[in-house]
Amino acid sequence: MIPKMTGTTDKSLSDADLAAAVAAGDQGAFVLLMRRFNRPLYRTARSILKDDSEAEDVLQDAYLLAYRNIASFRGDARLLTWLTRIVVNEAVARSRKTARRAAVIQLGSAFDDADAASEGVDETMSAQPEQAAMRAQVRDLLEKTVDALPDVFRTVFVLRALEEMSVEEVAACLGIPEVTVRTRFFRARSLLRQSLSNQIDFALDKAFSFDGVRCDRIVAGVISRLQRPVDGKA
Questions:
Q1: Beta bridge partners of 39
Q2: For residue 112, which of 18, 50, 81, 136 sits 20 to 30 Å off, Cα-Cα?
Q3: Where along the chain do its domains lie?
Q4: CB contact at 8 A, 22 and 67
């Protein structure tokens, strides 16, 4: 069924009213739904797939599936929880289908992540180049560290830490016991702290290096000044 072109833009609509409007074929409501939940659902898909383009594809598939089944939403849980379940199922299914192409996907993801980081830097470099570059580097470090978490910990961490879902909501989204959510979240934070600590220690060891061009420039400057004729000036 093709949704009707209507103009629902009321951002104050409750989950139940929004779902009802979408079920009635209101495309404006469906657009509002997607914009309201795009970020948490994209993060959920990406936490499973670890690939930007794959996550976007899965999210689109999940939205279409949600649209076709929105009438089944009864409001027993938050609309975000209901949608997240669909995204998780779609992402897991996509992950299984592409497992045999894991090497190719990882290579593509590496370039996608690099491109995304570059775009983020380009958007802000003109105003404050050093600060923008630093923010991009920190963001890139955090994203790569989260990506490196084992699969069973990564999605729990994204839902709990980034999207601030409750333990109960995460358990409902992933279909696992609440105690498992707590355990995995605790373990994920421990792994992240250890990984970031190791990387920061390595970076500190390399900070303010005088190797290479900087060293050569200083030495050359001093030698050049020593070779100047003495003219009585300080």
A1: none
A2: 81
A3: 15-226
A4: yes
Which residue in the block uniquely carries the two structure tokens 């900087």?
A: 214
Q: How far apart are CA 196 and CA 105, in angstroms?
A: 25
Per residue in 80-125, pLDDT tens? Answer: 999 999 999 999 998 887 764 544 434 344 334 444 444 444 444 4
Distance CA 88, CA 62 (A): 9
**CA–CA distance, 20 with 2 (Å, rounded to integer):** 16
Summarised one tens digit per residue, pLDDT across range 8-35 is 556 788 999 999 999 999 989 999 999 9
Q: What is the CATH number of domain 15-226?
A: 1.10.1740.10
Q: What are phi and psi of 223, to 5 degrees?
A: -60, -40
Distance from C-alpha of 73 to C-alpha of 33, rounded to nearest angstrom: 13
